[in-house]
Amino acid sequence: MHQESNREGFITSSSLFYLLGNFVGYYMKKIIDAVKFHKPEIVVLMLGTVYLLWYAWTGLGIPCVFRKVTGFRCPGCGVTHMVLHMVKLDFRAAYHDNPLIFMSIPFLLFEIILEEYRKYRRSRMPVWNNVLLFTYLFIVIVFGIYRNIYGF
Predict the structure, then answer these.
(1) CB–CB of 143/100 below 8 Å?
(2) How far apart are CA 104 and CA 89, in angstroms?
(3) In a 3-state reduction of DSSP, which class is residue 4?
(4) Average confidence (pLDDT) over 43-69
(5) How many alpha carbons fall within 13 Å on the CB side of residue 147?
(6) Among 3, 25, 137, 140, whose Cα sits 20 to 30 Å from the Cα of 125?
(7) Sign of the C-alpha dihedral, residues 138, 79, 61, 39?
(8) Chain-wide mean pLDDT for the chain?
(9) How many CA atoms lie within 13 A of 119 on its CB side?
């Protein structure tokens, strides 16, 4: 294994980038394998994990395109920080980063589980669920407008 150490025994930055490159390469192979087996949920989860680890280690994140173009915060702004705070079990800060998405996590998990169950049973989405999803979409849009007017 390739590791350089300075005399104090700490791993140098070149070794850290080598390890990070191997880590990302390993996950990219796993992502490609998941795409081959048509598992988009796994791909999204793995890409999200790689992105969060990258952001936690380097501090370099993907800027919000909506905010860069319009200057307004989108309904999803703050999700990266929210997840990082949740990993640290700092739920108050996670709520502050994006209250709507934070409070929506149980609903979103329910929808993911319901969708997997629906695919397993090969059934159509019920009408009540379509209404629920459109209601949630409406709430997300209202939240996006509200947070830009009142600075929330």
Answers:
(1) yes
(2) 17
(3) coil
(4) 83
(5) 22
(6) 140
(7) negative
(8) 80
(9) 7
CA-nearest of 107, 109, 100 to 139 is 100
CA distance 52 to 60: 10
Q: What is the pLDDT of residues 73-117, one digit of tens each?
A: 889 888 888 988 998 899 999 999 999 999 999 998 898 888 888
Residue type, 2: H
Q: Read off the pLDDT band of 1 (50, 70, 90).
A: very low
Average confidence (pLDDT) over 129-147: 92
Characterize 117-131 residue by residue with b for buried, 16 or more Cβ atoms within 10 angstroms of its Cβ, and e for exposed.
Answer: eeeeeeeeeeeeeee
CB atoms within 10 A of CB 98: 23
- Please report, for residues 8, 20, 119, 146, the alpha-carbon distance to residue 13 in angstroms, rounded to integers and kept in the order given: 14, 10, 46, 44
